[in-house]
Design brief:
Elements lengths: L2 H11 L4 E4 L6 H9 L4 E4 L3 H15 L3 E4 L4 H15 L4 E7 L18 H5 L5 E5 L5 H13 L6 E6 L24 H14 L3 E5 L2 H4 L3 H11 L3 E3 L13 E4 L6 H9 L2 E5 L13 H6 L1 E6 L2 H4 L8 E3 L2 H10 L8 H14 L6 H10 L7 E4 L3 H12 L6 E2 L10 H12 L3 E6 L2 H4 L3 H7 L4 E7 L4 H9 L19 H8 L2 E4 L13 E6 L25 H8 L2
Parallel strand pairs: 1-2, 1-3, 3-4, 4-6, 5-6, 7-8, 7-10, 8-9, 10-11, 11-12, 13-14, 13-15, 15-16, 16-18, 17-18
């Protein structure tokens, strides 16, 4: 078979059903090979960045391998933002490009138009990158790249293949088995140790992160939570993990939920599962908890364990093995009724805290969304309001973010990829600025009649940066409001131009059935700021705007 056919057949055998890209001279042979093989389909994106984001959404929603391809030169460079997003958020994506130059530039700027040292450019945002000029090298390189993308802490990989190889013949070979050291831990012993530590603690909490989503261990963590009977808090990106347990007490962070931050501040044991503890342990805000609480940390990436030298010892361990052991253990975690009562009092008192007009409106939408649909959030104030609304509305739908990289404009591409990965309806929440970053993908959604609802939160401003301008002390807004250079289109006409149904949200709006693409506009007052927030140096529970002093003091001494 030809090399192009070999690549496509290999990816299909790995379970890849959909790939995303844009035609280009050096990848035409590969693209046609994708089209010729049953069981795998190439999709035309309208910008390579969104082809990459679509592959990210495809991979992120279920932890499977995503694939994006692009031509050389600008096609390749347009993939870089999505590649970095996949790296920062540990998303397994294979990025494919091709080259035509026989050699790399040495001592001159270029050898052939659009060719460049691609691997040198991506080496710091991929787990694996290789330029392939020898057909004999291809089987092992492809197998190794796909394995590395999914092995351990997942992430993107990159192959730049000589276009001249695609039409060459290659012998069909079986999957290459790679000899790699696997993590070996006595997970039953670890599970017993965790239960023993919980039983000894007065105020234990479980802190979960997106590793739970990435490892598909939601069922196991929920079983263990009910068994342990202690409070669970999460990262902001993991509010969907706990199904409907009364033990869930929200997400923590500098823009977290007040009652969650209060509870974390009082804990004496923190069992961290799938959470990389992204905060400086020496900070004035979070350092206190490092001083008075014991941490049990488990992470597949040893680098995450060494970044907090002041914490207790961490364990390099795959939660894919640990969480089933926790779910199956019969060890006693003890009773913590007094601690649960404290947590309940705090949550009841602060349940309505920071539920503003935007959160209320979003909660009404979320309560009508089908339980099996996927939610995708873009970057900006809109995502923080959405996170708060998800917890307030008790939504457990799988929710995708651009977490650590924070790529504005990622939502439409990820929504497309998430749909093809799950064949389920998708609701994408974007800001009036974020949608304009990749608005062209509305063409794909409309053209293919995808069941994707795009909700535009329109506050007619670049709200997050406008708020930061004010906090930084600048006397006026610049490029963030209509009067300072920022502008927005008429979204009803945008919908009309792309052939989409348009709805201005009102009190009667519902998404209880999603069968066709819709553009929904939700108008948010420009004056609506992002709250709460944690000023530098404040105790983690002392968020801004401050609550009534008497209430704060009462809760703080519980």
């Amino acid at each position: 078979m030809k090399v192009s056919e070999f690549i496509v057949q290999y990816l299909r055998d790995q379970g890849v059903t959909d790939v995303f890209g844009i035609p280009g001279g050096v990848v035409l042979e590969l693209m046609y090979a994708f089209d010729a093989l049953d069981g795998i389909t190439p999709h035309l994106s309208y910008h390579e960045q969104c082809a990459g984001f679509a592959a990210c959404g495809y991979a992120q929603v279920e932890g499977r391998l995503g694939v994006a391809y692009a031509t050389k030169g600008p096609g390749f460079t347009n993939l870089l933002t999505a590649m970095a997003d996949a790296y920062y958020d540990s998303t397994p994506v294979l990025f494919l490009t091709a080259h035509s130059a026989a050699t790399l530039p040495q001592g001159c700027r270029l050898v052939a138009d659009q060719d460049m040292d691609t691997c040198g450019m991506v080496k710091n945002i991929t787990k694996y990158a290789e330029r392939i000029d020898d057909v004999k090298r291809l089987p092992l390189a492809l197998s190794e790249a796909c394995h590395i993308a999914l092995d351990g802490r997942k992430g993107p990989v990159f192959l730049d293949i000589a276009a001249s190889l695609f039409k060459k013949e290659i012998e069909s070979v079986g999957n290459v088995v790679l000899d790699r050291n696997k993590l070996e831990e006595n997970c039953a012993r670890m599970a017993s140790m965790i239960c023993c530590e919980i039983k000894k603690a007065r105020r234990p909490v479980i802190l979960v992160g997106d590793g739970i989503n990435q490892s598909n261990t939601l069922s196991s963590i929920n079983t263990f939570i009910e068994k342990a009977g202690i409070p669970v808090i999460s990262s902001r990106y993991t509010h969907n993990v706990i199904y409907d347990s009364a033990m869930y007490y929200g997400y923590v962070g500098s823009h977290g939920i007040r009652y969650a931050n209060f509870i974390l501040s009082k804990a004496d044991l923190i069992v961290s599962l799938g959470n990389r503890l992204y905060f400086p342990s020496h900070s004035l805000s979070y350092g206190k908890i490092v001083e008075h609480a014991k941490f049990l940390r488990f992470d597949i990436d040893e680098g995450e364990l060494v970044k907090h030298p002041l914490m207790d010892e961490g364990f390099k361990l795959d939660i894919v093995s640990l969480l089933p052991a926790l779910a199956e253990t019969n060890d006693d975690c003890g009773k913590h009724d007094e601690w649960l009562h404290v947590c309940q009092v705090i949550r009841d008192e602060l349940w309505q805290a920071d539920v503003n007009e935007a959160v209320n409106s979003l909660s009404k939408i979320l309560k009508t969304i089908p339980a099996d649909s996927i939610i995708v959030n873009d970057v900006g104030n809109n995502e923080f309001w959405m996170s708060r609304a998800c917890v307030y509305a008790k939504v457990t739908n799988r929710t995708l973010y651009s977490k650590s990289f924070g790529a504005l404009g990622n939502a439409l591409g990820k929504a497309i990829g998430a749909y093809y990965a799950t064949q389920k309806p998708v609701v994408a929440f974007v800001g009036d600025q974020g949608i304009q970053m990749n608005i062209q993908e509305l063409q794909y959604i409309a053209q293919h009649h995808l069941p994707v609802v795009v909700v535009v939160l329109n506050n007619a401003s670049s709200g997050m940066i406008k708020d930061r301008e004010a906090i930084a002390g600048y006397g006026y807004s610049l490029h963030t409001t209509k009067n300072s250079g920022y502008g927005i289109p008429c979204f009803s006409k945008i919908a009309e131009g792309y052939g989409l149904k348009y709805v201005m949200m009102n009190e009667n709006f519902s998404l209880d059935e999603i069968s066709s693409p819709i553009l929904v506009e939700l108008q948010i007052p420009e004056s609506q700021t992002l709250t709460p927030s944690l000023p530098r140096g404040r105790d983690m529970q002392d968020l801004e705007p401050r609550i009534d002093e008497q209430i704060y003091n009462t809760l703080n001494v519980l």
